[in-house]
Amino acid sequence: MTPNGAADLRNELERLEQRERPYIATALAEARVHGDLKENAEYHAAKEKQAFIERRIREIHYKLTHATIIDTSEMEERDHVEFGAVVEIVKLGDSTRVEYRLVGEDEADVNAGKIYIGSPIAQALMGRVTGDIVEIDVPSGCVQYEIKNISYT
């Protein structure tokens, strides 16, 4: 993952541990006051939320502990596509230009131009160089793109 992706996970972890966890503990205590826990919808909803929060906290801890953080700003420029690359591609036929940064799973956000390194588009781009034509299978068929630029900034 990139340093930004790791920072985002740390921020989410802090929010969950410092705000969400105490809030849900208070909600559970209030729900208990309302009596019979078997038929207490507020209590069951709070327990479900607590389980979700605890699962997510464990997941983030695991990811941060086992992640390899790659700072692309410290990498020397490469002529081929790898993790962290910003790739500008042009769709053949209609000249639609798209720019993607290849990132880790937790950082992926197609609307922000960040795609998961394991996605079909990223996999088709991996190892390619400027000028290469890549074919990407999409639901509507096979689409061809030309790689116009690769950078690691």
Walkthrough of the structure:
This protein has 2 domains: 3-66, Orthogonal Bundle (Helix Hairpins), CATH 1.10.287.180; 72-151, Transcription elongation factor, GreA/GreB, C-terminal domain (Chitinase A, domain 3). Helix content is 41%, strand content 22%. The chain has helices spanning 3-33, 41-66, 120-125; strands spanning 86-91, 97-103, 114-116, 133-138, 141-151. Strands 3-2-1-5-4 form a 5-stranded mixed beta sheet. The protein has 153 residues and is α+β, with helices and mostly antiparallel strands. It starts with a helix and ends with a strand.
**Poorly predicted sequence stretches spanning 5 or more consecutive residues:** none
Mean pLDDT: 89
Fill in the CATH topology of the largest domain.
Chitinase A, domain 3
* SSE string, helices as H and strands as E: HHEEEHEE
Question: How many structurally independent domains?
Answer: 2
CATH class of the largest domain: Alpha Beta
What is the overall shape?
Answer: elongated
The total beta strand count reads 5
**Number of distinct helices:** 3
How far apart, in Å, are the first and last alpha carbons?
A: 15 Å
Q: Report helical residue fraction.
A: 40-55%
Beta-strand content estimate? 15-25%
Largest sheet: 5 strands, mixed
